Amino acid sequence: MIPAAILATAGTALVTAMVTDGWEGVRKKVAQWFGRGKQDDTDRALAELDQARTALTTATGAALDRARMVQEIIWRTRMGDLASRDEAAAAALPALVQELQALTSAVAGHIEQHATASGNAQQAVLGQGTQTNTFGGQGGTS
Fold first, then answer.
1. Alpha carbon distance 92, 85 (integer Å)
2. Per-residue confidence of the chain (142 residues) as pLDDT tens digits?
3. How far apart are CA 81 and CA 86, in angstroms?
4. What distance in Å separates the CA atoms of residue 93 and residue 120, rounded to the nearest whole number?
5. Among 12, 96, 121, 123, which lies 20 to 30 A Cα-Cα from 4?
6. How far apart are CA 37 and CA 3, in angstroms?
7. Angle between helical axes of 4-18 and 23-35 (0-180°, round to 10)
């Protein structure tokens, strides 16, 4: 059984990769993973991946956030279903996820984020990958 953390990462990495310039490079590999050597299944996966990408690239604002969430759930579920039925697919999933993550981290590059709060405000900073968080401002309070 594939751990839930890998499936969550797989769904996020796949959806993130869909909106990168490098998507075409991994699109076929993802479809082949879903197809498991059956051309009809591979073609069906290609069509579904294209529909998902269109849903993401045509949405904006809150609709984009919803579309990302929905697509992550859909693809995480589909990957989990296949991996639970096919041992070879389950064994190949971590390498596929690693490739998707490499694509998205190469595209993202270095991101710097600054957040300021005062008084009794609280903040949450969310991201993935390597993060360095520094607390305390110029005044030395946090």
1. 13
2. 778 888 889 999 999 999 988 898 889 999 999 999 999 999 999 999 999 999 999 999 999 999 999 999 999 999 999 999 999 999 999 999 999 988 877 544 445 566 677 777 766 655 555 556 666 655 444 4
3. 9
4. 44
5. 123
6. 24
7. 140
